[in-house]
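Let us begin with a simple case.
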Amino acid sequence: MLKQLKKEILSHANPEKARLLQRFFKTGKGQYGEGDRFFGITVPIQRKIAKQYKTLPLKEIEILLQDPIHECRLIALFILTAQFSKAEAEKQKKIFDLYVKNTKFINNWDLVDLSAPYIIGPFRRYKNKSILIKFAHSKNLWERRISVLATFDYIKMSHFHTALRISKILIQDKHDLIHKAVGWMLREIGKRDQKQEELFLKKYYTIMPRTMLRYAIERFSEEKRQRYLKGIIKTSQ
């Protein structure tokens, strides 16, 4: 089944699109996606392929997830998320374990963003969140981003504590992709409860990276945005 799936993936390859994607996902030397390779397949086509192979066994999904081609890894994650959503508790645990075991292959922002909120988040929803704290302290950029994006599941249920705790840990992270992720999650909290978001911002907005702040206050009124950006909002001690 895996061999057939790989043939299907390859049949959609587009070398010109692949070159564009390699630039877009920063695959050059020293960039966050250094060395990643693409076939140049659009996400809708990848989702369609994943749907066709949604019953792929976990052992074969893991092989696909470790493939050097970006689209193979994303298709593997699409299949995993689809299987997780319909699985009983025992299989969900196997999917979760497979995911955690292979985080080094979930190594670009799209791979994280399209999987962590649908596997890591839901699996830990009513359980201990220590793995998210561990990931937030990781030296691995993508594990740190997983820790942030996993909390989207809780935010959508108006449970903000874990997201705010992760945000505090990462408040002065050095990487732009973490700044964007934390700011995004803070903005999502604000959509549901702006008071809660502002309680956090008033404590930390003066020390958080500018990109993080800009993402977090994106939906505020222009007047309030400017007050935050100019540092004239009263801080909470």
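The second case is a distinct protein. As before, the sequence precedes its structure tokens.
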Amino acid sequence: MTKRQDYISWDEYFMGIAILSAKRSKDPNTQVGACIVNDQNKIVGTGYNGLPIGCNDDEFPWSKQGDFLDTKYPYVCHAELNAILNNIGMDLKGCKIYTALFPCNECTKAIIQSGIKEVVYLSDKYNGSDTSIASKKMLGTAGVSYRKVISSVQQLHLSFDETDV
């Protein structure tokens, strides 16, 4: 018997962790997850977009429009920032971050400052926007590479049915 041939790549695995992390987000519009990996392919941080610890997500707005303080924007931490802040307590220099959505300019600052050297993303739906242009300019200047994940699988199925194990 030979080994299985249809296993997923490291990129697919870590992007899958980022996508699974996004399922923890309470945001009704956009769920984003992120996964930070060291040079030995070990996960050192994960995050999703949500409110800071101690802020009850039932007491804050989730709207995208309206007066600034009545929207989610001043309160929600993005997935990339949460993954950096939630890391296991190690230096992130040289790590990769997998994120479901190309990082905004604010998260890009944190990515660069943390020492992460590569961004792997699934969607770049805001490509061409001011925040995306600023992010790419900063990443390029700081020598942080970025690339879209390439996957040979369209989707993966997770099951909590114990008979599937």
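The CA atoms of residues 127 and 144 lie 17 Å apart. The beta strands are 33-37, 43-48, 96-101, 118-123, 145-148.
Keep these points in mind for the review questions at the end of the chapter.
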